[in-house]
Protein 1
Amino acid sequence: MSGIPEAVRVHLGMELKALYASILDEDQPPTLLGLIAQLDVGSTPATPAVPDAFRAGLLDALPGLRAFAVSLTINPTAADDLVQETLLKAWANRHRFESGSNLMAWLCTILRNQFYTVCRKRKREVEDADGVLAGKILAPAAQEASSDLRRVWEHLGKLPAAQREALMLVAAQGMTYEAAAELIGCQVGTMKSRVSRARSFLAGSLGMEPRHAAAT
């Protein structure tokens, strides 16, 4: 559990939920919508109905998938590239997806694996340290709803990706520690520690608590 006051935790949670909702409410990029529409069904190893259902599932998952990508990259352009690669990989491996299981979780696993592959190749995190790009993606309605929302978003970009991911899953999306740990593939205790450190860093950055250095 985070050592910050409960009122601070609640306030940060409200801001993060509003932030996540603002990303979900954005119009989806035409490039991604077009990609899904144009995915080839000719080489499908299954019945014709399966690709259509899978394509529909990709469309339904797109807002949440893109929001997850944005929370990882803090860069809308990089997020869209990441989602595009995820969609292509998912389509190529659709025969591996078990019908009836959680498509969103499966897609998020592909997306985050791709993200960290890119990070390893670049030997640095993909982030906008100054929050310049991050501040441009907020919906106007969300900016008007809270004077703190933009500042919260800007400081998210200064967190290590692992902490930012954990915080967005638990505090913004409302996942349990157990569910988030299962998705990421880490111990529940590790998930709790990452969320706690991220909360403390944001609280300090926003002047709510003495600032703690972010650490992985």
Note: Residues 49-73 form the longest helix (25 residues).
Protein 2
Amino acid sequence: MITCHIRYVVDQDKLTEFETYCRMWLELLPRFGGIHHGYFLPSEGESDIALGIFSFESFAAYEKYRQAAALDPDVAKAMAYYRETRCFLRYERSFFRPVMGEPLFAS
């Protein structure tokens, strides 16, 4: 499994627009075989950092998603929405290999 962590620098005046953009991707990514772990937006204080985390079975599966997404009309709509709103200023993408163990919280 490979997990992608995206660190966004967001425009605090456009958090509503950024949340709309996030919700688009929450629906889009699973269509391409990914598992979305969610977005995490600033909550308290003066933070301009948001996070997005999702996983794919392998880096090859991630690359297949990237190729398919480039041709998808709904992905094009999400990207057009970003270009229209400029709801984030930049992002950094990193990939991780998770090590899983016992749950942190008891159910």
Note: Residues 17 and 87 are 6 Å apart (CA to CA).
Protein 3
Amino acid sequence: MAFHEKITLSSQDKMDAVALLVLRLGLAWFIFLWAAHKIITPGQYQDLARNFDGVEVSLSQVYLAGGAQIALCLLVALGVLRYFSYGSLLIMHFFTVTRRWEGFFDPFAVNERGFPVNRNQVIDLAVLAALIALVLLIRRDHFSVGGWLARHDRARWWM
């Protein structure tokens, strides 16, 4: 296809693209909030690494991880390097889910004050499913930088 040729999207393609835009922005925002908290409250993440993983991490390591995650979220929000950025968020979140699997077996557990203690794990599964769907539907994600470049047959590596 030549650079001057324009691909027109059907109304169904546009609806799919809008749905994926909403999904992509929502997922990027969700993960961004967790990443930003690494920058805002790094000590909390040092405690989590110590208590959940049994490892000590420095403040600079927490800041580095948070910064890398924020950068990934920006790539996802824009739809740049889609296979890399969407896939990276999926793998990162999958790792989180595998570390918290025990809560999936007791989703209705409450603490002594009646607070549901495992609901974040249940939310994690929904987010994981949404990230899988986003990766599977990359080729229908037309309202992204990568989608625009693909429609205009430019710079395939940006897709």
Note: The two ends are 16 Å apart (CA to CA).
Protein 4
Amino acid sequence: MLIKIHYKEGMLMKVNVAICDDNEIFCNQIKEFIERFNKENNTNCEVSTFNSGFDLLGQYTAEYKIIILDIEMKGMNGIETALEIRKKNQKVIIWFLTVSKDYMLEGYKAEAFRYLIKPLSYDDFAKEFDESIRWVDEKYVRPIIVEYKNETYHLETNDILFIEVFGHKLIYHLLNEKITTIDTLKNIEIELCKLNFVRIHRSYLINLKKVKTFNRNEVVMKNNERIPISKYKEKDFKEAYTHLWGKILG
């Protein structure tokens, strides 16, 4: 299996945004705001619009990273919709927009990221939206885009336990499978080390978040596989571990 990995400097990952409001004019206005924001900031936001909470929940997917909800909708209001979404996803950013502050306390029950009052100018929207995008970029796992036989796939870095060099190939060790590729660690190491990976041996690059336990000689990953720590890489491992978890290693 030949996989090519692509990284785009300066580009944020695609962010799926859902707008839910029973006022079609307002939905379109916010959609236009986001499209303008994309052009001005080189972002990659894809927008879906819904006319009711029922419609949103019926087509809800975890791909949505930001959800913008009007509170005062007929049938299922924005608060009720948000509380249902929170049962499925604790990380998604939820905005509430309304003409009144009366629902503010209820909104925070759904862990609202922003609570904004209509009407909303583009400048006010862009300021708040920029912060939301930055939060998504920092908190969500960046996917690695891979190509195989003219098909494109997304391999989440959070699914990778470690990568092993085997001859002229790489083996991606996931929790329940292994993917063999023709590549070198040098091609991916710089970018993955920005995402909590560290090289602990000439043949192994590990995901620090998937470490179960370790000693000075080896690391045990969450799938119980044991990986040796090279004496030349022990310092790098300790520094990376300290940076991620804030625990100083002796």
Note: Helices lie at 24-41, 53-58, 78-86, 104-109, 122-139, 185-192, 234-245.
